[in-house]
Amino acid sequence: MKEKREVSVAIQGGFGAFHEIAAKEFFKNQDVEIIPCDTFADLFEVLQEHRADCGIVAVENSVAGSLLSNHSLINDSNLPVVGEHYLRIVQNLLALPGERIEDIKEIHSHPVAIMQCNTFLNELRKKGVKVVDSLDTALSAKRIRDEHLRGTGALAGDLAAEMYGLDILRAGVESNKRNFTRFIIIAASEKVKDILNLTGETVNKSSLCFSLPHLQGKLSHVLSVLSIYGMNLTKIQSLPIVGREWEYLFYTDLVFDNYSIYLKAIEAIKPITENLRVLGEYRQGQRPD
Question: Residue 283 gets which letter from DSSP?
Answer without folding.
Answer: P
